[in-house]
Amino acid sequence: MRISAYVIFGLLIWAGLFLRFFQLEEKPMHADEAVNGVMVHRVLEGEPVTFDPTHYHGPSLRYLALLSTGLYKVVTGEGLSEVSLRWLTALAGVLGVFSVSLFKRWIGFRAGLAALALMAVSPGFIYFSRYFIHEILFVLITLVFLFSLWRLLEKRDLKWALWTGGLLGLLHATRETALIVLAAAGLALIAVLGKNLNREARWVVSGNGSKTIGVAVLCALGVSVLFYSAFFTQLRGPIDSVLTYFSYTIEPGHEKPFYYYLGLILGRGTALGYLGEGWALLLGLLGLWVSFKHGKRGESGYSFHTFLAVYVLLTTASYSLIGYKTPWLALNILAGWMLLAGIGWAFAFEKLSAPWMRFAWGALLILFLGQSLYQSHLLAFRYSTHSRNPYAYSHTSPDLLQLVDRIETLAGYHPDGLGMRIDIMANEYWPLPWYLRNFSAVGYWETPPPQSNAPIRIYSLSDAEGIARIDEASYITEMRGLRDGVLLLVAVEKNLWERQFPTE
To answer: Fewest Cβ atoms closer than 10 Å to its Cβ: which of 127, 135, 138, 331?
Structure first.
């Protein structure tokens, strides 16, 4: 019976990992994915891409994608595409799952395995592992950074100083929210040190301590500067990485109440039968209690359980109190709760003495995992762009791919081919720059150009003035969806249209 349980357990984990890679081309690119993809494309085309402190996140995703897409091309022969880009984040998602096993030395084998399984089948982690955005990479680096930080506390040597500093630098080069991780980890360490804080402070200023901490700081700065300076070719980048905390602009419409992430985890507001990840949250609350009540001291003399509990509470509070919220940011909260959930499940398992009770508790976990895996399949595939999918945040409509197909087909009938002129006169048009990246004469205009002879023009449906100037005698129009609530009007020159659809 135990062997059968382990087989089922292993199959569920394997299925969760497999879903991260399966049919990565299944859904259209989100606008944020397209922005990142266009940056990678520009670098491959030889264009210098500088860091914009007012809008974009760190450059590490871009440069790691250059390595991963190059490797993907060597293995498969396929060039830059949605799949080759998302392959990086899918891999990061898998590595993030296995990084949970690093913590088993402090939380125990059963707790580590349960946490690993919960993350493996998590709908949120599976869904955003299939997104070419920074978040899943950020979570992976965060988990390894926390592991390395605690090992540094235990060992106090240069090896772990190098690892901790390097990971912190990479974290900063990935997202500006590295500041939240650093602050939460620092405050959690202070809480754990407690009465020994003065003693530890004396070590920090001692010869050995200052050398160890200095190496960590220098390594963090070195890695961060390396990425932000585009490998020392854009020396303004490191300065901008600091200025971004004062100049980053946030588009309106992302403000959410403080309980937004809690509702997201519980599956609030969806009609898909999604029960959320409430199971992990409930087990996590038990793990939180265990961590404070029964947390064991390790070889450092301090309790990792307490450190983890304080860190999770601080990150949860920080992200919840910030008004700007998007569903992928919930992963930074969920990762910690998954570890606490493993602790909670293992604690209850060990307290059950009767074999049949342990079997029932293990079967209940498998039931939780199966339910999460089923919901992951629904949300990542069947309803991947559905407006009631809690993770499909302003996602691109599949209808846009029909527009892209239309443009590519019409280019085949136009004498200029990929040099055919396309004028896009819309306030919202991403991810079109990604899909039209191989067209050389695409214009994006805030106001229509005075003299446009473009055979294809795309307007925002709200642009009444621009639409009114369309010559109905010369153009055929059709409507396409960009995303939920955003429509585009496409005007195609009649002569070109009739080449595709000749009249009798």
So the answer is: 331
- Count of domains forming the chain: 2
Q: Residue 161 and residue 294: Cα distance in Å, rounded? A: 29
Assigned domain for 182 exists? yes
User: 449-475: b or e for each residue (b if 16 or more CB lie within 10 Å)?
Assistant: eeeeebbbbbbbeebeebbeebeeeeb
- Whether 391 is in a domain gets the answer no
- Determine the Cα–Cα distance for residues 354 and 351; give it in Å rounded to an integer: 9
Q: CB–CB of 72/84 below 8 Å?
A: yes
pLDDT tens-digit series, residues 203-238: 888 888 889 999 999 999 999 999 998 888 888 888
- Closest by Cα among 115, 125, 117, 104 to 5: 117
Question: Cα–Cα distance between 483 and 464 in angstroms, integer?
Answer: 19
496 vs 477: CA distance, rounded Å: 12
Q: Considering the domain boundaries, does residue 461 fall inside one?
A: yes
Residues 410 and 343 in one domain: no
Which pLDDT band, with edges at 50, 70 and 90, does 201 fall under? confident
Same domain, 421 and 334: no
Amino acid, res. 499: R
- Whether residue 273 sits in one domain with residue 404: no
Enter the tokens of residue 115: 């946490």
Please give the average per-residue pLDDT across 379-397, as a whole number. 87
Residue 177 lies in a domain: yes
Q: pTM here?
A: 0.92
pLDDT tens column, 9-59: 788 888 999 999 999 988 999 999 999 999 999 998 888 777 777 777 889
250 and 206 belong to one structural domain: yes
- What is the side-by-side strand order in the sheet with 456-460? 442-444, 422-425, 456-460, 486-493, 475-483
